[in-house]
């Protein structure tokens, strides 16, 4: 193989596909089953939350938005464009937000639309991705173009060179250990799944005093969130937290009050102080692509393009 991608979440698989599109032979090495990754738990609605506001992040987000919009139009499993209402408790500066250039129909909500509890807000259409459908589609696409999957837990990144001379590190939270990078840390997110009573639009509340709040409908359920708990490694759902999530979300969206709870989930967002690390490693033929926090889907295809360019430029491959 020409390149080995370590990690099979949304970042690893999109990067592997972009590498294949450059004509490279790619193997993905992963310790996890596809639907056991953090990506599989994600609510996965496009928005660059807690990623920093650098130009690179804006560009990566815009690229992914455009890719998902095309995929939704093409009928890719799990991808749709969802009407979204984002509410703010504080008045925002005039003009578009820093991420707004990526969103064609972004507009400010009127006072009547946002209601008395919010000082500002936005309306826009954003990609929504049902990961239990989309991740298998990505894997099938990768395997269909000659990719290979190896299930192995690595102790060091150097062990990946057994499969290829160039390594792309897309290990998410695992990069804390594999790269000895203390900037990598978990941000715990708990959510509640309820039956969809016919809710068409997403609602996101940026700074709800009661806690991190979002309502994201999918084809058969609604994802209610959530929590944003730095440095908490606990992956067990907490009943009191679930009750608080339900109370916040049903207060905002009364139609959810009779929706039956069908599940609970917890994911550890692979955050990194200083933002995502996407760069070639000067110490060797390694490209790092990790630390995307809760914006893995939002940054995925943009980061995949950049990582694939770095890997192809390392030379003597293919």
List the helices and strands and how they pair.
Layout: E1 3-6, H1 10-21, E2 26-30, H2 38-41, H3 55-74, E3 79-88, E4 107-108, H4 111-114, E5 120-129, H5 131-144, E6 148-151, E7 166-169, H6 175-178, E8 184-195, E9 202-205, E10 213-217, E11 221-225, E12 229-230, H7 239-252, E13 261-272, E14 277-281, E15 286-290, H8 296-313
Parallel strand pairs: 1-2, 1-7, 2-6, 3-9, 7-15
Antiparallel strand pairs: 3-5, 4-5, 8-11, 8-12, 8-13, 9-10, 10-11, 14-15
Helix pairs in contact: 1-5, 1-8, 3-8
Give a short synopsis of this structure.
By secondary structure, this protein is an alpha/beta fold. It is 28% helix and 28% strand. The strands form 2 sheets. Strands 3, 4, 5, 8, 9, 10, 11, 12 and 13 form a 9-stranded mixed β-sheet that branches.
Question: Which structural traits does this protein have?
Answer:
8 helices; D-Amino Acid Oxidase, Chain A, domain 2; 318 residues
Protein model, in words:
- This protein is an alpha/beta fold and 318 residues long.
- It has eight helices and 15 strands.
- The strands form two sheets. Strands 3, 4, 5, 8, 9, 10, 11, 12 and 13 form a nine-stranded mixed beta sheet that branches. Strands 6-2-1-7-15-14 form a six-stranded mixed beta sheet, covered by helices on one side.
- Strand 10 (213-217) and strand 11 form a beta hairpin.
- Helix 1 runs parallel beside helix 5 (131-144) and helix 1 packs across helix 8.
- The longest helix is centred in the first third of the chain and has 20 residues, at 55-74.
- The N and C termini lie close together (8 Å).
